[in-house]
Amino acid sequence: MASYLWRKYADYVYNKWERTLLWDMLEPYRRPKSFTPLVTIYIAAFYTGVVGAAITEQLYKENYWEDHPGEAVPLMKPKFYGGPWKVLKGDVLPPNE
After folding, report:
1. Rg of the chain on CA atoms, in Å
2. Does the predicted model carry a pTM greater than 0.70?
3. Which of 16, 17, 34, 49 is 20 to 30 A away from residue 25, measured at CA?
4. Spatial separation of the C-alpha atoms in residues 73 and 60, rounded to whole Å
């Protein structure tokens, strides 16, 4: 029985090596993998950021209106950018604190 199992194991290992060699030769001719999952993740991440920015801006406006009812809401300062930035139309905001 032991010799039978060793023979089966040897056949398995040899065939496994043979299969690997065969697929390594065919690998350059395979069609490329699909980019659909990657594109889907990028689109989902983009729209998550868009929705997050809209919610943040709306909360900023509501907080401003609570303190200054009836006034126009000034532009919101960028959250993740501390460098210089220019406002083309509207009032320039005070510097970041």
Report:
1. 31
2. no
3. 34
4. 9
